[in-house]
Amino acid sequence: MNWKNVLLISALSILPISLAAQANILNAKKPEDIGKKTESQKLADDDAPLPYGYVDDRDILWSKTVWEVIDLDERVNFPLYYPTDTVDIGADRRSLYHVLMKAIKSGELTDVYVDPYFTDKRTLDQLGATLKKVDTTDLGYEQLNAGEQVSEEFINRRDLDAADIEEYRIKGIWYFDKRQGELKYRLLGIAPVAPDVNFIDDESMDPNQNKVELFWVWYPSAREILHKAKVFNQSNSAQPISFDMLLNARRFNGTIYKEDNVQGDREIDDYVFDNALFQLLEANRIKENIRDREQDMWAY
Predict the structure, then answer these.
(1) What is the CA radius of gyration of the chain?
(2) Could you tell me which residues come within 8 angstroms of residue 177 by beta carbon, excluding any fewer than 6 positions away?
(3) Contact 216, 227 (CB under 8 A)
(4) pLDDT tens, 63-89?
(5) Phi and psi dihedrals of 97, rounded to 5?
(6) Which tens digit of pLDDT belongs to each residue from 123-179?
(7) Running DSSP on this structure, what letter comes out for residue 298?
C-alpha cells in the first residue's frame, strides 16, 4: 500500500466526523434545519464532557493552588473573547461571557460566587449592581426636585457586555498523582473581569486600577454548559472544539498573579512593587517551580 492510499483511507475515516461537526448542514432542506440532528444522529450521539477521574486525598503527594490571569488582548486568547457582536452571526457562535450569562439568566448555572474561595453565593438579582448601572442626569434631578416624574431621556443605563470583558481570572490546582506518577492540573473556578460599571466611561480613571471581578463560577458545575458551547476553530471550521475542552487542555496563555502562601495568599504585586518586568519574572519563577516538581519527583 503506497502513501496515497494511506492518505485516502485516513481522509475517508475522518469524513463522517467532519460532517457531523457541521450539525447536518449538508442534509438541511431549509436554513432552519441547520443545527438539527436527525433521530439516528441523536441515538448515536455520545457527546459529553470527559469526566474527571476520582482522585483520593491519599494519592495527592504534592499540590499547589495558583491564580492566573488570561489577557484577552493576546491573540491566542481571542477564542474566549469573540464574537462580541451577535447581531449578524449564527446562534452557535458565542463568546464565553455570553455563554456564562445566558446560563446564569436561565437558571441553568447557579454555582456563582463573589470570591475565588466560593464562600459567598450570589444570584442574578444580587449581581445587578456589578453588571449594570442606572444613573440620572442633572436635568433628571431637576424634574425629581420639582415633583415631576423623571423622563426616560434623562436616565442613563449602562449594561456590561461581552465587548467590555478585558480578561478572565482562573483558579486551579496543580497536583502530583502518585498512583499515576504524573503532574496534573484541575481547573476550579473562572471569573470574567471588566472595568467597574460605575466608572467605565470615566476617562480620568486608571484602566489598570478600575478592573473588578464580576463573579466567580465553580467550574465543575459549568462543564456541561461549556461543553455544549463551541469555539471557532481557525484551522478547521468543520472541527469546532468546546469551551470545556479549550480550558481543560489549557489552550490559552495565562500568567500567574497569585499562589497559596503563608502570607494569606498575597498577590505578586503585593511584594513586587511597580515593576511589571519583575512581576512577570516572579510569575515565571512560580511556574517553573511547578514544572520542575514532576522532574524532581523522579530524581533520586
Answers:
(1) 24
(2) 55, 59, 60, 61, 183, 184
(3) no
(4) 999 999 999 999 999 999 999 888 878
(5) -65, -40
(6) 999 998 888 888 777 777 777 788 777 777 777 788 889 999 999 999 999 999 988
(7) T
